[in-house]
Amino acid sequence: MPFNEDQRLPPSVATPLVTQSSFSWWGLLGMLLVFLLILLVSLWVIRRLNQAGIRNMNVSWARVIDRQILGGQQSLYLVEIAGQLQVLGGSDHHLVKITEINDPVVAAEILQEIATRPNERMEGWAQSLQKLLKRPSPKKEAFSTELERLLEEAEK
């Protein structure tokens, strides 16, 4: 028997027009925690990828001491190449020597400023989480011993 528009269903079969909202604060809190977890993991991955270019250079005659991002894809690099401190300007496709630092007093001031600069890291529990996830590198020398070596070379 076909259904006509004139025929009505009994009230027990009809669907209610107004449904109750099943809003859950626990569901909202869980979704917020998942979002924050994804955000923190993404920030960690981005920082690791940004630092990967500097850390991959494992030659004894050249070391990247510091990098300052100027904007976009442009950066300044303070590097030690064969015992000489040099400032390089770089982008994705181009690297230019800007100057060489020959004055030992200026070199010592720059290295001292780098050594005393506060770390730019997330504070609180996120920082402790980052310390737990960081793997120590057995090949790398400690920064303080490297700084002392560079200061001694600059004084010579």
From TrEMBL:
One Gene Ontology term from the biological process aspect of the record: bacterial-type flagellum organization
Keywords associated with the record: Cell membrane, Membrane, Transmembrane, Transmembrane helix
GO CC, alphabetical: membrane
Broad class of where this protein is predominantly found: membrane
Transmembrane segments: 23-46
InterPro entries: Flagellar_biosynth_FliO
Keyword Membrane among record annotations: yes
Protein name: Flagellar protein
